[in-house]
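Fold it.
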Amino acid sequence: MDAWTCLHDLFQDNEHSRAVTLEHEFSSTHMRDFPNVSAYCQRLKILADQLKNVGTPVSNSRLVLQLVAGLTDAYSGVGMLIRRSKPLPPFYQARSMLTLEEADFAKKVANEIDSAMFSSASDDATSYPDTKPQNHGDGNKHNTKNKNRNNNGHKVKYDGSFERHKARLVGDGAGQQVGIDCGDTFSPVVKPVTIRSMLSLSLSKAWPIH
């Protein structure tokens, strides 16, 4: 009888220790640690079920409130909507609201990327008209000069100042002479619209930015 009592007490101690560990993990679960809403919600539900198995059930209200508390700033709007609902919605309904919000974020990011690509294509088409390249016999191909280019091939305004510091040159590089075939040009590798699109995508996915 004493042996069974010892085993029972040992089992109770292990169960209590497990409950404490699960409680801590449940309370410290945040969306920023997961790739998407579904993975975040699934982890919370698994922890709630495990707490129930060790004799510490989690009510729907507490589960929903913990779900809202762990959201990232991008979901603060829908989180406030859920928190102000009276009564609080069931867990599955709150999860559906977050999933729809995530889908809206993805759609907005896709539209921004499409707009940025269209804007970039339009800008390139305006800056560099469709002209056939001419071969100057030195192995290099240059765009045909238009009436707004100076002697060095740079685009200029009517007052003679540079229109923009940008150039297009395709050649072998071996037979070029600075000042004749090419000049010093500076062009950014990434456009601001691309940076904004990537930041929006990172925000919607709650990705860390370094």
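The chain has two domains: 2-101, 128-210.
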